[in-house]
Amino acid sequence: MNSLNILTKYYSLVFVLIISGCATNPVTGIPDFVTITEQQEISIGASYHKKILEENKIIQNKELNDYFQKLGESISKKSHRPKLKWHFTLIDDPTFNAFATPGGYVYMYRGMLNYFNSEAELAGVIGHEIGHITARHAVRGMSTAQITNLLLSIIQSNVPGGQLTGNAFNLVNMIINRGYSRKFELEADQLGEDYLEKSNYDPSAMSAFLATLKYSDELEQKIAKEEEREANIGYHGVFSTHPDHDKRIKALSNLKTPNKKNNKEKFLKLLDGSVFGSSPEEGYVKNSIFYHPVLAIKLGISDEWVFKNRTDELVLTKDKDIVTFKVDELLRDDIENGLTPEIYLKEGIQKTTFLTTNKLISSEDFSFNGLSGYSYLYHSESIMNSSYVRFTIIFDIEDNEKKPKVWIIRSNLSDLTNDEKSKSMIKTFSKMSQSEIDNSKGLTIKVIRFRKGMSYEKLAKSSPLGKYSVDKLRLLNGHYPNSNPKIGDLIKIVQ
Questions:
Q1: 65 with 90: CB under 8 angstroms?
Q2: Which structural domain range is residue 465 located in?
Q3: With pLDDT > 70 as the criterion, what percentage of the chain qualifies?
Q4: Do 474 and 393 belong together in one domain?
Q5: How far is the C-alpha of 273 from the C-alpha of 263, rounded, in Å?
Q6: Which among 53, 132, 403, 418 has most CB atoms closer than 10 A?
Q7: Angle in degrees, CA 450, 453, 459, rounded to 5
Q8: How many CB atoms are closer than 10 A to CB 428?
Q9: How far apart are CA 252 and CA 283, in angstroms?
Q10: Who's near 59: CB < 8 A, 6+ residues apart?
């Protein structure tokens, strides 16, 4: 096929798609290029919803779920697509985020819900997510991707060196989508503010929560810098091309209408008693102790160690040192046949190539707190580096009603002088009592009335939030970095 025929086919296809794919945008009233019908959009959303329910735990609080659904429905009635069937779902996860999928599906994580300080703020973010759907942002992005991929397939199949052309198209597509992301976020913010006002809420609540997002990122960056790690930030700001928080706030009208409702006390009372941070089933940190009621273990964590509770391991870091805890099951038959922590460790090391580059310098019994264990310390030395690795094996086999477990602990140490410190931390590892397991509720939100003589500094002294309690309490209540509540205000603490 010659180049003229290719171009003819290309432009003919574009013309057909433009003619067939134009639909009036519900928000702007201007035709959009979309290749997905509303029914297809709803079907896509329903499919995503099913998958989300399969992969996530939903908050088991009927009153809170009903409230979220009803509030969402009331905002959606003031939107540009009031007749769409809307679904609002609360996910039981400490992630600080919310999102929307095509067809009328809005989701919010518990980790974000805890940081609202009025119903109006919550309604603003719900309105923002509704705005993504009413303006068909996802659908427009999907349509762009569809046409790009279709045109790409034509060019790649007919033009010599088509792969290079394809890469160029992919680059353009990425730029377009990231540009759209900036545009769409700002549009959704403005729609959220508009829906707030139409729903008789104070529209300034939108910018108030955007300020919370901004300060959340700032605090996380501050803590990450002090802990010498990468900051974990993200709500609608994953890509550098997304608008920053100051630009988003500036783009809003920021009108304050005191006569409009915010329903602060009603909302905060609903949050009273809700889980904060990780759930007990996942394990949680309280008063510098990590508890995992399902595994029935606890571990002391001093402020000098940075702790991460990952899906498959516990990770503690201090400067350049890293200590990881992993758990595996043991066979009861192996234990009855004489398997010990020392044998388990020796056989495990021998199955690897570890001994080819590391020298054993000491071994010791590591039994403590009623647990049996054994430990090896190795030295690794090269032209560029010298370090130490300690492997510790701990058997958890005393409970005959549960499967026996083995804890595999690896300490990567930059200096031998740090070995005793890591060993001391490891030896805080112990079994939870039945009473501790029965009473494990994790961290919860408690709503109190701010009284004379109170301060965040005083409240922080009894807070389980650790080193940055003052900052975290201020952020939780919309008072970061240095504001304070008024006497008589309801505030949230964590206990």
A1: yes
A2: 272-277+442-494
A3: 82
A4: no
A5: 18
A6: 132
A7: 65
A8: 16
A9: 40
A10: 65, 90, 91, 92, 110
Note whether residue 401 is domain-resident. yes
**Pairing relation of β-strands 87-91 and 105-109?**
parallel
- Tens-digit pLDDT profile for residues 161-209: 444 344 433 433 443 344 346 788 889 999 999 999 999 999 999 999 9
20 neighbors 32 (Cβ within 8 angstroms): no
SS (H, E, C) the chain: CCHHHHHHHHHHHHHHHHHHHEEECCCCCCEEECCCCHHHHHHHHHHHHHHHHHHCCECCCHHHHHHHHHHHHHHHCCCCCCCCCCEEEEECCCCCCEEEECCCEEEEEHHHHCCCCCHHHHHHHHHHHHHHHHCCHHHHHHHHHHHHHHHHHHHHHHCCCHHHHHHHHHHHHHHHHHHHHHHHHHHHHHHHHHHHHHCCECCHHHHHHHHHHHHHHHHHHHHHHHCCCCCCCCCCCCCCCCCCHHHHHHHCCCCCCCCCECCHHHHHHHHCCCEECCCCCCCEEECCEEEECCCCEEEECCCCCEEEECCCCEEEEECCEEEEEEEEECCHHHHHCCCCHHHHHHHHHHCCCHHHCCEEEEEEECCECCEEEEEEEEEEECCCCEEEEEEEEEEECCCCCCCCEEEEEEEEECCHHHHHHHHHHHCCCEECCHHHHHCCCCEEEEEEECCCCCCHHHHHHCCCCHHHHHHHHHHHCCCCCCCCCCCCCEEEEEC
**pTM for the full predicted model:** 0.78
What's the structural domain count of the chain? 3
pLDDT tens, position by position, 115-145: 999 999 999 999 999 999 998 887 776 666 5
421 and 451 in a single domain? The answer is no
Mean pLDDT (the chain) is: 84
CB 76 within 8 A of CB 83: no
Do 74 and 168 share a domain, yes or no? yes
pLDDT tens-digit map of 302-331: 878 888 888 889 999 988 899 999 999 999
On whether both 158 and 194 belong to a single domain, the answer is yes
Residue type, 258: P
451 and 388 in a common domain: no
Angle between helices 119-134 and 204-226 (to 10 degrees): 100
Residues 120 and 16 in one domain: yes
Q: Residue holding tokens 């198209």?
A: 169
